Amino acid sequence: MLEASNNNELPVIPSKRYFTIGEVSELCGVKPHVLRYWEQEFLQLKPVKRRGNRRYYQRHDVILIRQIRSLLYDQGFTIGGARQQLTGEQAKDDTNQSQQLVKQLRLELEEILHTLKK
Fold it and tell me: What is the structure's pLDDT at 96?
């Protein structure tokens, strides 16, 4: 994923739990109305909405927005292409996580088997 350290032109993401739309706009170099539009186009982008429908973005949302920005502005993807790219990366991540989980469970079961054999 695109971290702040990999992108010199954008400011470092502060260690906060929630960010307002204005803060995210500054952190990602994108206007607030574009962020609201991207929420409709990218299903992965779901900021927390509180009283008065105010949006509060978390760190993972900010990183995702930077990734979307990079795909659209730097790499020249269309909205549809960026959506496909993100869905493909998410599927790869899910597969890797599943494989790691299976390996971990297998190791734990082997340990249990070894303990039972004693």
Answer: 65
